[in-house]
Amino acid sequence: MADVRTITDAETAPEAPPSPTHVTIRREDYRPPDWLVPEIHLDFVLDTESTRVRARLSVERNGDHDRPLRLAGDALTPLSVLVDGADVPWRMEGPDLVIDVAGDRAAVETEVVIHPAANTRLMGLYASGGMLCTQCEAEGFRRITFFPDRPDVLSRYRVRMEADEARFPILLTNGNPVASGRLDGGRHWAEWEDPFPKPSYLFALVAGDLKPNRDSFTTMSGRKVDLAIWVREADLPKTDHAMESLKAAMAWDERVYGREYDLDLFNIVAVSDFNMGAMENKGLNIFNSAYVLADSNTATDVDFDNIARVVAHEYFHNWSGDRVTCRDWFQLSLKEGFTVFRDQSFSADMGSAAVKRIEDVRSLRMIQFPEDSGPLAHPVRPDSYMEISNFYTATIYNKGAELIRMLHTVLGAEKFRAGTDLYFERHDGEAATCDDFVKALEDASGVDLSAFKIWYSQAGTPVVEAHVDYDAGSGTATLELEQRVAPTPGQPDKKPMPIPLRTALIGEQSGAEIASEQLILLDEPRQTVRFDGVTEAPLLSINRGFSAPVIVRAQRSPHALERLAQSDTDPFARYEAMQELAMGLLTAGARGEEVDAEPLIRAAGNTLGSNALDPAFKAEAILLPQEAVIAERMEVVDPDAIHRAREQLRTAIGRGLSAELTRAQAATAPGTDHSPLAKGTRRLRSVALNFIAGGDAAAGAHLAKAQFDTADNMTDRQGALAVLVSLEGTEREDALKAFFERFSDDPLVVDKWFALQASAQRADTVEQVEKLARHPAFTMSNPNRLRSLAGNFSMNHWAFNDASGRGYRFLADMIIAADKLNPQIAARLVPPLGRWRRFEPVRSATMREQLERIVGTSDLSRDTYEQASKSLG
Ligand code: ZN
């Protein structure tokens, strides 16, 4: 791979060809494929060191042209190339194989040898814990065989696998098994067929010594589907929750979207080395083991919820992704935004919808908002990329889901469902676009959605200013709304966007809904909305349920927010009032102003004491905004001042509400009870513990150690340890040691041990993290382990932004080292360094220096180069 610095070489030597690593791919350049591949036969002779892959493609010229057949490869060398059984001339153009094919149809055969054990990128065919598995999305298939590796080429697959039977007793791929047998020398083989044409990114293969948790599901039309979750034998007892989640997801998609599963077999495999969460390969989903394995002793309630969410997400892709796929990678949100919206709705239906909405909005604000206001901002449907792996972002996934949610809000559930029915019917078996999706919704509903499409093309988070004037004499309230979107890279001038705002007025005195909820569509730069018959001073309840992914600046007094926190009839708006109340105090505190915490303490006390609210909601409502979210509100970010302000408020609440918090912390639920009430009780318990420790460190340490020692589940244990790691004293050291010793042979729990320490709110966290990187249990080659240390540390706002710059250097060292092994994972660690514009000059300069050091590293991957160079701006 070419040195990244050839980009500057090219400036002085214009005759040098551009480095293939820096080519920018543009959406406007899309052209249909020159050749189609209706069928492919693959033949694998599997082995960890060297695997032989023979491929037989039936190719068809697509349209009237005389361009050659170009098959994408990535680090492949052809051992033989045959066209219709004959040797023909061929050439390599960079990594690709190019063949001049005379007729309009041909059978093209290639043979390559690949090396799974040496594959540290975890793309293509690789080895993990003694097994072999694949990851092909987005462009991994070209690391297995030569192929037009783009999502608009759909093929029917027939796959033969052969391997040593003792080491690889289980052989799986997409579709259904059709034949199998034994060979001499302890070898065996199996042949499978997938009846559904699919793009190459959905191909999957697994070979290993795995055991199944088997079950079945009968679909709404009465077909029986065999389900299996494949894991190492020792992990079998931890697969029941994933299986229950799968069956619930299958039933939900039938009930809510009318979508039924289509093969006789549905397999899930758990692997411990995986770049992402999981992958929706047709009939053979491959999962990061973190999203499969759970029991109450080793997994937290959050882990349980994540497993249900990800199992459902990948299952839902069978329709939104597999049956209807994407035309090109610019349309990625077509499947991801929609599927995230589907999994969010599923989780909302399985538990508390209000709490789920709060959690989703929190993560949107924590991850997507900063992305949208920084150097890596891009539209939900991007216009260009260098490396598509860098675009599996919160914008594509989560803002994409918000976009679909707005369409759902505007159309209503019934018309939305008519639209998705039409979409699935119209595009079944096709590779579609975001425009196709909107068109189907429009055609089925009769509603013109053209104005909404700007949400696909315009990046940046809109800011909405809202202000209400009340005229008691005439009984009218006037709501003034104003919107703007700040410039983002490549988009200096922004247009107004259609923003659906669920809005109501709450009576200041009565606390009642005095103007019932209406959906206001703000689609002009400024708009005025009048409410008549308003009989008392109104409080503004706006963007209820977070109906639009925007920042609302409503000038509301602490008194108004306190009142709304107590009486707003929309639970999300109530949560929001608490958060706004806290945010006002935190930003004022960070600017060095005196603050009066009493209104917030009263509101939190009311929340805790309410009989009407469930404990999970209480926990969410009283949690203080994270430091990174507070930073988003500051002109110039001062991490120390933000930390100090937040600590002061935590202390004030811990002291002001010690009786209520102590009661909440004392409430327990049996570890194996995963009802919403039990989970909420545990959540509130640890949130309360954190405030108690803020009010009195010694008492907090004592209580935390007791919670840790007596816990019968991982949620209570981890919640206690999360408080202890930020404190001083022997309780901390003892608990960390006990935790590691007890769980040292469970990699997913060891990940927690690293993550907790990387998230610690301590002055010496940077040093601790540097030390942990030298711990024998630390390894960069496992993505979960790398993320648990480096990823969590980079999100620890105060510690990462240590004035010494040591945190920045640590992260850059990690990125440079990881890039040699796994560019995708290295590149995902870059964004926190791109926040440099927001900080005071010294930190800002240090962050830039580190980005420059990364960009200047020789043999840097395209992935990391793109993220680091764009972060420099
Ligand atoms: Zn997905």
Descriptive notes:
The chain is an alpha+beta fold and 873 residues long. The chain has 28 helices and 31 strands. It is globular, with a radius of gyration of 28 Å. The model is unreliable at 1-18 (pLDDT under 50). Bound molecules: zinc ion. Residues 313, 317, 336, 339 line the site of zinc ion.
Placed side by side, the strands forming the largest sheet appear as 6-5-9-3-2-12-15-14
- For the terminal residues, how far apart are their CA atoms? 24 Å
What's the story with the biggest beta sheet? 8 strands, mixed
Rounded average pLDDT: 97
Tell me, briefly, the overall form.
Answer: globular
Bound molecules: zinc ion
Write down the Rg.
Answer: 28 Å
Q: Number of helix segments?
A: 28
Number of strands: 31
Structural class: alpha+beta
The quaternary structure here is single chain
Helix content: 40-55%
Low-confidence stretches: 1-18
Percent of sequence in beta strands: 15-25%
Keywords:
alpha+beta; single chain; eight-stranded mixed β-sheet; 28 helices; globular; five-stranded mixed β-sheet; binds zinc ion; 41% helix; 873 residues; disordered N terminus
Summarize, please:
The protein has 28 helices and 31 strands. It is an alpha+beta fold and 873 residues long.
Q: Topology, pairings included?
A:
Elements: H1 6-12, E1 25-26, E2 35-45, E3 51-61, E4 69-71, E5 80-83, E6 86-87, E7 90-93, E8 96-99, E9 105-114, E10 124-128, E11 131-135, E12 155-164, E13 170-173, E14 176-183, E15 187-198, E16 205-208, E17 211-218, E18 224-231, H2 240-257, E19 265-271, E20 278-279, E21 284-288, H3 301-316, E22 325-326, H4 332-350, H5 353-372, E23 384-385, H6 394-411, H7 413-427, E24 431-432, H8 434-445, H9 454-457, E25 463-471, E26 476-484, E27 499-507, E28 513-522, E29 526-531, E30 538-542, E31 551-554, H10 558-567, H11 571-590, H12 598-609, H13 615-622, H14 627-632, H15 639-656, H16 658-666, H17 676-695, H18 697-710, H19 714-724, H20 730-743, H21 747-758, H22 765-772, H23 783-794, H24 797-800, H25 806-821, H26 823-827, H27 841-855, H28 862-872
Parallel strand pairs: 2-12, 18-19, 19-21, 22-24, 25-31
Antiparallel strand pairs: 1-23, 2-3, 3-9, 4-8, 5-6, 5-9, 7-8, 10-11, 11-16, 12-15, 13-16, 14-15, 17-18, 20-21, 25-26, 26-29, 27-28, 27-30
This protein binds zinc ion (ZN).
